[in-house]
Task: structure prediction
Amino acid sequence: MAKPKIRHLAIFARSPRKLAEFYQVAFEMEVIHHAPDHTAYFLSDGYLTLAILPHRLEGEAAVGINHFGFQVEDMAAINRKLAQFEMESPKQRPAERPYAEYRACDPEGNQFDLSERGFENAESGRARSSREELV
Result:
């Protein structure tokens, strides 16, 4: 039996339209559906679907997701795209964090990790340095 895979994440947002635009520009995600009144957007990178849902003060709470991650090919290109939204530059993750090299956040404050090498293998700062010396 194949392992279950995360294919869908949902985020409550105060401004779903703006947040959807951010993910379209910064990460080239495509809108695959939206609510008729444009209060909710569903985007995809071709593998994972990201639901951006309206946050309402009538009892819903933004709990559950701490952060998520994107594997990227070119950090410099991503930095340029994030700068278009006047976002703080991604910060390097501590060496003892074994997966992502950088952390950033979207316009609503949702944190995400960025990694050029991927999330498949844990790799500490020491292992990263050793690998880089071999290249």
Notes: The chain is about 25% helix and 25% strand. The chain has two domains: 7-56, 67-135.
